[in-house]
Amino acid sequence: MFHFPYNRNGGAVSLSTFSGYPRGWFVVAFSDEIPVAQATPMRYFGQDLVAFRGEDGQVRVLEAYCAHMGASLAHGGKIEGCTIRCPFHGWRYDGSGACVEIPYAKKIPPKAHQRSWPVQERNGVVMIHHDPAGNAPDFEIPVLAEYGTAEWLPWACSRYQIKTHPREIVDNLADRAHFAFVHNTAIDEFSFEVDGHTATQHTRGRAFLASGGVDNFSSSTTYHGPGYLLMRMAGALQNYMLLAHTPIDENNLDLRMAVTIKVVGGNREKTEGYTRLYLDNLKKGFEDDIKIWENKIYREPALLCDGDGPIGRLRKWYRQFYVEHVPVSALPVD
User: Which residues is 189 bridged to in the sheet?
Assistant: First the structure.
């Protein structure tokens, strides 16, 4: 279970602003993880789900357990066209969750319906929209124009299951001071801004490599909602990094990391070699973060100093995804 944060007097601090799960778009798979005509089990937001790609190529996501007698559609469910048939009694559901056929019945019960999730497939990942109130999405994930073009390599991907709360990962966007101590990186310029559902960090600095070299870089990193981050880095290699974290339950999340690199000098094979090395370096950096995330408590409010970075502003921004349609300007400051 999560450790409760403590105030300066040792008392537990309320987590009411972080109750439940945040609303927004969340990655549940890389596109190639959802094949055509196959039921794919998954668990997110404390619920068992089934994803399937119909004959039209579109992905649908439904609650896993059949409304009839609770059999799992994710285990043995048969994909027929753009529908899924329950392996227990053959009830068949479309992508909206409506039961469209019961082979042995003349009438379909009005309550024969599975919960369906809004799905968007973009930039090589499959996302679902989570909102505890069932409201429609109020922002979109941007299209990455470079993705899938001949000048850029496909995503090189990695995935972790982490015992932490997403708020810990989000904090990093505004945490200037941790770069030197966790990532052996000197930050020479740092700025941070929020705009509605986005929060952006701009940095310029020097990464001190394990090999002894130094990589001078500049980067622009933006959260689009509470769980989808894109970083554009200009250094020795032109690249994008995708970081997506999705709650599995209240104690665990899936973190997906991917990188795409611009082909260097028209040589794809050589650039692929760079990609493997670059992804390995990124993974080492995030694994250092993971050791901290899994072994810390969440201080609220945090005891901050003037060199930490705008962590208070970031936490204020993040709270909007837990409070129903309250603008950032109306939320309290840490």
Answer: 204
CA atoms of 169 and 161, how far apart (whole Å): 13
E-only strand ranges, 151-252: 156-162, 185-195, 198-208, 214-224, 228-234, 238-247
Closest CA to 290 of 157, 167, 168, 155: 168
- The domain 156-316: what is its CATH number? 3.90.380.10
Separation CA 76–CA 97 (nearest Å) = 17
Candidates 69, 243, 81, 75; CA nearest to 169 is: 243
Burial of 25 (0-12, 13-18, 19+ CB in 10 A): buried
CA dihedral 311, 312, 317, 322 (to 10 degrees): 110
Query: Which CATH code for domain 30-117?
Result: 2.102.10.10
pLDDT in tens, 71-99: 999 999 999 999 999 999 999 999 999 99
Query: What is the number of other CB atoms lying within 10 angstroms of the CB of residue 37?
Result: 13
Residue 195 · residue 201 · CB < 8 Å: no
Tell me the domain boundaries of the chain: 30-117, 156-316
3 state DSSP class of 197:
coil
Omega into 118 within 30° of 0, i.e. cis? no
Least confident of 23-37, 139-153, 177-191: 177-191
Task: Give pLDDT, residue 247.
Answer: 98
Q: What is the pTM of this model?
A: 0.89
Other residues' Cβ atoms within 10 Å of the Cβ of residue 179: 19
